[in-house]
């Protein structure tokens, strides 16, 4: 899929269909700050799930913390008991797998879930760790010097922010 053809709203609708297939009634949604948290919030509402979606930060467990420091993306907020929960982690873009590794470490700081699955809007390949999404709305190839991130307008409409070239 061409980067120019990426329609974030169309991919969100595809993600909604995919998440419906892998979610059970007791599944808890947890979005990675910030793009994943936006997805979790909207999916929670569109799927009419009870309660509130969780938000999780990778900042404290990143292997590049010394270079990056604390991001301003947000903090972890899990409004449910993690122990024994079936959790679906949501993110906008899966790339190296390092953010997912850090998020899983953060999640286990809060308890021991029964299962953890991963759904992403875009899988861009380039894995450095053995991490695979259970669902990806799209797979795209980008150059190493390019980045892709979900953006959200004031009205809640999703788009992509592409940098590099």
Short description:
The protein has 165 residues and is of the alpha/beta class.
Can you give a write-up of this model?
- With 165 residues, the chain is an alpha/beta fold.
- The strands form 2 sheets. It has a 5-stranded parallel β-sheet. A two-stranded antiparallel sheet has the order 6-7.
- The chain starts with 7 loop residues before the first helix and ends with a strand.
Largest sheet: 5 strands, parallel
Order of helices and strands: HEHEHEHEEEE
Arrangement of strands in the largest sheet: 2-1-3-4-5
Residues in β-strands, percent: 25-35%
Overall, the morphology is: globular
Structural class estimated from helices and strands? alpha/beta
First-last Cα distance: 16 Å
Uncertain residue ranges: none
Mean pLDDT: 91
Helix content: 25-40%
Supply database-style keywords:
4 helices, five-stranded parallel beta sheet, alpha/beta, 7 strands
Give me the secondary-structure topology.
Elements lengths: L7 H15 L5 E5 L2 H12 L7 E3 L8 H4 L17 E9 L3 H12 L5 E9 L11 E5 L7 E6 L5 E6 L2
Parallel strand pairs: 1-2, 1-3, 3-4, 4-5
Antiparallel strand pairs: 6-7
């Amino acid at each position: 899929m061409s980067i120019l053809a990426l329609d974030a709203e169309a991919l969100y609708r595809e993600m909604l269909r995919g998440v419906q297939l892998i979610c059970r009634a007791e599944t808890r949604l947890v979005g990675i700050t910030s793009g994943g948290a936006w997805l979790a919030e909207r999916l929670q509402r569109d799927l009419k799930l009870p309660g509130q979606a969780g938000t999780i930060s990778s900042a404290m467990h990143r292997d590049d913390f010394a270079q990056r420091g604390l991001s301003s993306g947000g903090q972890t907020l899990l409004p449910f008991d993690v122990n024994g929960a079936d959790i679906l982690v949501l993110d906008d873009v899966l790339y190296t797998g390092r953010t997912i590794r850090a998020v899983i470490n953060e999640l286990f700081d809060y308890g021991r879930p029964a299962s953890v699955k991963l759904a992403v809007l875009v899988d861009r390949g380039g894995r450095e760790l053995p991490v695979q999404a259970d669902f990806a709305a799209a797979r795209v190839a980008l150059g190493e010097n390019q980045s892709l991130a979900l953006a959200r307008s004031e009205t809640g409409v999703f788009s992509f922010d592409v940098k590099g070239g």
